[in-house]
Amino acid sequence: MAIKPCLVLLLPLAALLLLAGSSLAAAQLEFGYYSKSCPNAEAIVRDEMEKIISAAPSLAGPLLRLHFHDCFVRGCDASVLLNSTGSNMAERDAKPNNSLRGFGSVDRVKTKLEAACPNTVSCADVLAIMARDAVVLAKGPSWPVPLGRRDGRVSSATEAADNLPPAFGDIPLLTKIFASNGLDLKDLVVLSGAHTLGTAHCPSYAGRLYNFSGAYSSDPTLDSEYADRLRTRCKSADDTAMLSEMDPGSYKTFDTSYYRHVAKRRGLFQSDAALLTDATTMEYVQRIATGKFDDVFFKDFGESMVKMGNVGVLTGAEGEIRKKCYIVN
């Protein structure tokens, strides 16, 4: 299956070069980093991703989410992929990461790369490329991915719990977390658009439906009809089996319908609803929700993904190139 995304927008290389050079760490990443050491690296990833998403389209969201959850804890160093050991609970076993999926797909891609180019392509770069290809295969935009990340050797569940943006976050909290990673308010509202893909377990949003506060049984910022519909699926805050689409009716397609839901007060998470409480983020939501600026969002998303993918990267002699993504060498 060839990649033939709808409305694919390939960001101008010059613009992305400026983004990649926006910080010292970013400047150490390069477009075409593996052009000599593993020239087919991205083609190998793409070929496997086509097979993976063709067989399981619902994996696009989880594979994009892995890259997000990696970058917000210790930077984009593939620490989210490491297994826990007898003496250490790793990020992937932290409560906010309990619903992460796609680890097997990452291992599958890494195995192919190791066969072609042993000890060359980092797991951190694999996550970045797979995230881009997941979006493309879900009919979203494409963008060049600067590469050259190295893999970290440390993974902490405590750090994951402390540093990941929570689903209940308000604008001040989310802004603080994003700013600590060199990301601004625009990145926040743009990257929230990733919620157009995937599903969420009941506990991540049940607090909006039951016993919300002393004054309200449910979150008053949530559309009442939508809340009633969610309660038919999420029977209690303890229901860990039921899934809800983050972008109802379009959760396997990367598009702008997420913003239309948010504009109608039908964002699934409190963090989605929070986008309507700030003038800057609300204006962006309402603009993209018109459906007239899909190309703008696609361009913005690629730029913010490059920016996020530069967070806290290890380069040069730092870290290592793991042979297997779930264990240090």
Automatic annotation (TrEMBL):
Binding of substrate, residues: 165
Main location: secreted
Record-annotated site: Transition state stabilizer: 65
Cofactor(s) required for function per UniProt: heme b; Ca(2+)
Any Gene Ontology CC annotation: extracellular region
Catalyzed reactions: 2 a phenolic donor + H2O2 = 2 a phenolic radical donor + 2 H2O
Record flagged with keyword Iron: yes
Name this polypeptide is given: Peroxidase
Organism whose genome encodes this protein: Urochloa decumbens
